[in-house]
Structure formats: C-alpha cells, structure tokens
Amino acid sequence: MTAVGTSVRSALFGTRGHTSVSRGLAEFQSRRPVLIRGAGETIFALPVEGLDRQRLAEFRALCAPSVPRLIVTARRAVALGIDTEKPMALRISAADDAKTILAFVTDATSDHVPEAGPAGRAEAAAIELVKLAQGLPAVLAANVAPDAISCASSIITVDAAAVARFADDAIQSLTMASEASVPLKSGTRTRFVVFHDAIGDSSVAIIVGKPDFTRPVPVRLHSACLTGDVFGSRRCDCGDQLRLALACVEELGGGVILYLAQEGRGLGLANKMRTYQLQDHGFDTVDANTTLGFDDDERDYGIAARMLQMLNCTRIVLLTNNPAKLEGLARAGIEIASRMPLEAPINADNRRYMTAKAERAGHRLDHLLASLGDPS
Fold it and tell me: What pTM was computed for the model?
C-alpha cells in the first residue's frame, strides 16, 4: 500500500521541487511574492512588474528589519554601466520609490547607478523564475527567516535548485492535448495538434497535407507573433514568413509548421511592446532586448524538438534563415537534411529590424545583404 501510495502521489503532484516552482511561477504571474530557499539562505522575493507605492510599502514592512535589494540580470546591469557577467543585487534606499525602482529596470539611461554586488543563488533563481513568468526580468528581494514573516504560512516556498531544472522538466512533461482537421482558405486540408506543457503554454503543430514521414519532412518553426501574424504589422517579417512557409509546404506536397508560444523571441507580448518603445527611441532590436535585461533571443528549441519527436518527425528540411534553430534542433536529436531560406519582402518599416537580424544576430538574409551592397 505504501509503494502504491507513493507512486500515485508522484504521478499526481510530481517531485517536491517541481511542484514548488510550478506554484511559485503562478504566484509571480499573479504578482505575488514568494519565498525562495537556496543553500543556506532564504529570500523573500517580489516581481517589480506592477510595482506601485502601496505594494512597495507593504513589501518593505514584511521584510523589516531587512532592507530589500533590487535584483537585475547581467544584461540589465551592463546597460546600467556595471561591468559584470552575473545577475547583480542593487542597493536601494528608503528614499527610492516605486517609480525610481522601475526606472532602474526599464529606462534606457540612468543618471544614478546604485551600489551593487553579485546576486546570491536564491536571488539568481528569482530572476529565472520571473523570466519564466514573462514579466520584467527584475525582482525585489530580502534575506529573511521564514518564520519572521507574519503571513509566512500562506506564502509559497520555492526550491532555488529546482528552478534551473524546470524548463527542461516542462519539455519532458509535454502532452498532446487535442487535435482536429482544419481546412485552410487556400483549399489545403490540415490537422492542428495542440500541445500543453507544465508552464501552461500551448503550442500547435499544423500538419499540412499528407507529408511522407519516411523521408525528410519540410518543417517551419514559427514563433507566435500577434502583431505580424494576425494584424499584418510592417515592423517585422513574421507574418510574411508564416505565409511564405505555408505556401512552400503546400507546394512541396505537405509538411509541418510548429506554431510556438514564444512571442517576442521568448520575451512575451508585454515585454515585446516595451522593446518596441525603445526601438522608437533609436535602439535596434538587439539592443532593445538587452537594455531591458534579456538576452537577444530567449527562445529554447527543446520544446520544438520534443513536438517533432512525438509526431515521429525526426528527419526534416528546415525552412529558416536562423542558424540557431538548426543548432537547437540538431542538439536535441533532430536530423537536419537541408535548409530552405524564406525571403520575406523588405519595407521601410522593417528594414532596420531585418538589418539588425542579419548583421548582429547572424540570420541568413542574403537578399537583404545584397540590397545593401554587402559583398558577401
């Protein structure tokens, strides 16, 4: 009975660490604080997303007598003028209000950089957790004794070591949730297969026509882009690439388009709009991402590889201009037979974006470079 009970508990709840991260993620998405426990330390952490005067005052009161620090990514620290390769803890004073703290996280420049030191392990885990929640990549944190907080019994405690494993665990947790036949406007029949993961995201495999899975299958990995795919935004080439890929796959007799829940190269829609604001003030797409504290590209293609494996589609012809997709799938065990480029049209609104992708992010946009007179 004991063995069976243990097995059932594991099947229902997962490991203790995974469960703690899953619940902590939900708290961060709801802008609530959590306790994060690392080796020999416990911190009380609150996302800066949605910070206002009342929330800041309540958080400070709960932390007292400890003084909260502002934890930022290495990318954001560099943007503030701090020479580092690790997340940093910025010392904030009682005089720093919510507006000032948010400025340390989002403003393109800052006249004042607080004193800073390396973030601890639990603080770095808090940054990773808030990234999973697709919030601003910064948290307020204070070292506390768990029983020193009056409402500690109602606060979720997260295992810092489990945060680093959570994304990989989510890939392995992937399930096929549902599927249905969907005829397209072009007349092509497709099958939409919806996948769920432990983070709560839904990605979709669109199986176009009747691909022959005994041969290399044409495949497109397409990150969701609400602005481009749905509304036809001219700021990017996403919608054009999706339509080109669909037409190409149809012409080749069938294939698979993976529509991935990775808006804004993995930043999420809200952060994507924040990077657009920075671009409107002169930043290119790479610098806009890193100024906010993100990597240039936050996507991981393990989820795409797992979807292909579950579809028994492991030999592919990849429709992409992005070498990172080739490398990510190959590392995950997908055999890349060849690559096919997608040459989307260039316009006055996306030329700067496309140029940054080609010159700074390594995308193979030969048609763009040719138009710029690049000898390569």
Answer: 0.91
